[in-house]
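User: Just a sanity check before I run the rest of the batch. Below are the structure tokens for the first item. I only need the designed sequence back.
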């Protein structure tokens, strides 16, 4: 009986504390047409404290959506254009010699912000990627001999163009694994594109967004998300999905054994759990369902499963492998 009361109280608490999600969507709709999938996943990244990698051709409103989200959240935002000549100091800052004081002072770089848009992240070399990696994983930056903690929330939302690969640097697997989600942005529908054309083909002022929540609301939401109930059977389902990518033969998926070079890492397990809780929160629920896990599984797993040369030769993508796993593992 007490457990039912606890769940009821938690449900009421989530219903109340998740109302700001509706406010954010309403405000974003003023400038963003469609792209609900992208906004959903960005919100999951924000609520679950995870970085997001966005892949899509130019012109799909990736930059506009990220900057609009930062405005609505009333947080500090920096857009960094990654280029082949970018240096780590351009990202994190450097030491400047002060002749008057005869000493070095720290000049902080654009990474010292809340929401970072790393535009075309795969255009910069390894040194820049390693500097970003420390920020993403350790939530700190080292300049000279000093280490600085980054402000919370700290979210890296990185974009990459899947079409033009000339002059790009493939991201190291260790860095790709740090992204909670990798999402693929598709073209808008005909109806959405018609609305985009009508809105954007007018010169003059565009709709201005206003902040609708303070960051304290995000921190409160994260605490509530920790209390969301997840049943042991759903937890085991998450484990099964991840282990099926590592040991497919155990799950009667022998055909995948020659197609997977490396399966998903333990970060996939953690992130499936966190993202599923965040998805349940966005649906104003106090518990996680298997459908929550299935909804976000592709975005958590697609960049963590490395296909073999045989899979590439047969034109089998990581998404095909994830779909095979999702259709084969029994849902509790």
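Assistant: Here's the designed sequence for the first item:
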């Amino acid at each position: 009986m007490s457990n039912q009361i606890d769940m009821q109280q938690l449900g009421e608490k989530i219903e109340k504390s998740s109302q700001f999600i509706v406010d954010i969507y309403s405000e974003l709709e003023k400038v963003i047409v469609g792209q609900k999938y992208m906004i959903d996943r960005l919100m999951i990244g924000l609520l679950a404290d995870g970085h997001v990698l966005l892949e899509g051709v130019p012109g799909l409103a990736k930059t506009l959506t990220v900057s609009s989200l930062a405005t609505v959240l009333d947080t500090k935002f920096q857009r960094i254009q990654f280029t082949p000549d970018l240096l780590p100091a351009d990202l994190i800052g450097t030491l400047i010699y002060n002749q008057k004081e005869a000493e070095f002072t720290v000049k902080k770089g654009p990474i010292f912000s809340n929401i970072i848009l790393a535009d075309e992240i795969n255009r910069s070399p390894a040194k820049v990627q390693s500097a970003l990696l420390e920020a993403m994983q350790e939530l700190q930056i080292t300049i000279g001999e000093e280490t600085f903690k980054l402000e919370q929330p700290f979210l890296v939302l990185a974009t990459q163009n899947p079409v033009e690969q000339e002059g790009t640097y493939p991201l190291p697997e260790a860095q790709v694994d740090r992204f909670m989600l990798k999402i693929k942005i598709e073209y808008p529908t005909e109806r959405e594109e018609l609305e985009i054309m009508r809105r954007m083909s007018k010169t003059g002022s565009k709709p201005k967004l206003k902040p609708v929540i303070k960051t304290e609301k995000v921190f409160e939401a994260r605490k509530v998300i920790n209390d969301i109930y997840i049943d042991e059977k759903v937890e085991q389902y998450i484990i099964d999905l991840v282990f099926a990518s590592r040991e497919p033969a155990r799950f009667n998926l022998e055909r995948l054994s020659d197609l997977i070079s490396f399966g998903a890492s333990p970060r996939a397990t953690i992130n499936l759990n966190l993202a599923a809780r965040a998805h349940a929160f966005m649906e104003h629920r106090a518990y996680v369902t298997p459908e929550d896990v299935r909804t976000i599984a592709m975005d958590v797993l697609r960049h963590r499963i490395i296909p073999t040369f045989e899979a590439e030769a047969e034109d089998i993508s990581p998404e095909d492998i994830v779909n095979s796993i999702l259709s084969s593992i029994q849902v509790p």
